[in-house]
Design goal:
This protein has about 350 residues and is an alpha/beta fold. The protein has a domain of about 100 residues. Helices cover about 30% and strands about 25% of the residues. It has twelve helices and twelve strands. Strands 6-7-8-3-9-10-12-11 form an eight-stranded mixed β-sheet, with helices on both faces. A hairpin with a 2-residue loop joins strand 9 and strand 10. The protein binds iron/sulfur cluster. Iron/sulfur cluster binds next to loops.
Length: about 350
């Protein structure tokens, strides 16, 4: 983890006590419930958890894309906008929660300064326009350049994401591209306006392993070139082991652990993180490891039980866990965790065998 002062100076987005709720007939679902974290400039924050844990809703809250019956019920999303001008660098702090979602300022940020890529790229492109024309329109809208220059930039961007014959492919419709190619085109669209933040929501889940590796390489390479901050959302910690600098683990709308990638992989502090890590392949075949299968279902989010949200599935749970909810608290090394027993438990990371494999679990 970076030194606190340096990290604070590099903060691009600060999410503070974010609460995003959905009013359904069965009750209020607290999809995101008091979440706080920071995204640093030019670094990759990984967000991991099972589906329904609130990671995508957190991303959509940052993009101010929550629609009814959802609403941001509280908290702040501070965007530290930095601009370089002739008189030097200026910084402006904008609370995105306060901006009307469809107002001009939010629309300029969304798609310009912040961009998002999704699991299903074909759903992001209009099927009736060519891929190129959609990239050109985005560049013209957000970068105030003419069509000719926008087209040149679009071709260059398609080349940067390794699309062959970009001068020809710019005329292709989304359905004429393969899944991997379309995903590259969506990355080109997202990065064509040189965003400060790229939110990637499970962008490789629908792809085969080889294409996934290529897309991860591409995101990493483009991040280095453009110094873009990346928020990478996935259910798969193995992906974050490849790409993330810091990792946030979410469970039932809350953060349960936040740590640097290496520290988290070597020694998780939360039993849920340990279970997610047990699914990460170990590079050394001599090491035996048992996958920890999470028993039970994720509790009904409209009717959560008291105590630790993870206690119905936790193999280390004790009496107090079903009575008292553990707060998210600071631990040595700049880490945070929400577990009553974090100091006592010796959990297995991805770099050494799991307890169960040693016969101790
Ligand atoms: Fe498990 Fe208890 Fe820690 Fe929750 S507080 S993760 S139930 S040990």
């Amino acid at each position: 983890m970076q030194a606190e002062g340096a990290a604070a100076a590099n903060v691009l987005v600060e999410v503070k006590d974010l609460r995003t709720y959905f009013e359904l007939t069965e009750g209020t679902v607290r999809a995101v419930d008091g979440v706080s974290f920071s995204i640093q400039r030019a670094r990759t924050l990984g967000v991991v958890g099972e589906s329904g844990c609130g990671k995508s809703v957190t991303a959509r809250s940052i993009m101010n894309m929550i629609r009814k019956p959802g609403r941001i019920a509280g908290g702040q999303i501070l965007y530290y906008r930095r601009r370089n001008g002739s008189s030097g660098s200026t910084e402006q702090v904008i609370d995105l929660v306060q901006l009307p979602p469809m107002g001009p300022e939010m629309r300029a940020i969304r798609g310009g300064e912040f961009a998002m890529i999704f699991q299903e790229p074909k759903a992001s492109f209009s099927p009736v326009h060519t891929v190129g024309s959609q990239i050109i329109e985005a560049i013209m809208l957000h970068q105030n350049v003419g069509r000719l220059e926008a087209r040149e930039r679009a071709v260059e961007m398609l080349r940067r994401v390794n699309i062959p014959n970009p001068e020809e492919r710019i005329e292709a419709y989304p359905h004429q591209l393969s899944g991997g190619m379309c995903q590259r085109a969506m990355i080109a669209l997202a990065l064509s306006c040189r965003p400060d933040l790229l939110i990637a929501d499970e962008p490789t889940t629908a792809l085969d392993v080889t294409t996934e590796a290529q897309i991860l390489d591409l995101i990493r390479e483009l991040q280095e070139t453009y110094h873009t901050a990346v928020m990478y959302i996935t259910h798969n910690l193995a992906v974050l082991a490849e790409i993330a600098d810091e990792v946030v683990v979410m469970y039932m709308g809350k953060l349960v652990e936040v740590a640097d990638r290496e520290a988290l992989l070597a020694r998780p502090l939360h039993p849920y993180t340990e279970a997610l890590l047990s699914a990460v392949p170990v590079p050394d075949p001599r090491r035996r490891r048992t996958r920890l299968v999470l028993e039970g279902e994720v509790p009904d989010p409209a009717n959560p039980s008291p105590g630790c949200p993870f206690h119905p599935r936790c193999r280390y749970a004790q009496d107090m866990c079903s009575r008292e909810e553990p707060p998210l608290r600071a631990m040595p090394g700049g880490r945070t965790v929400a577990c009553h027993l974090a100091e006592q438990l010796e959990l297995a990371g991805a770099l050494r065998p799991a307890r169960a494999a040693d016969g101790q679990g």
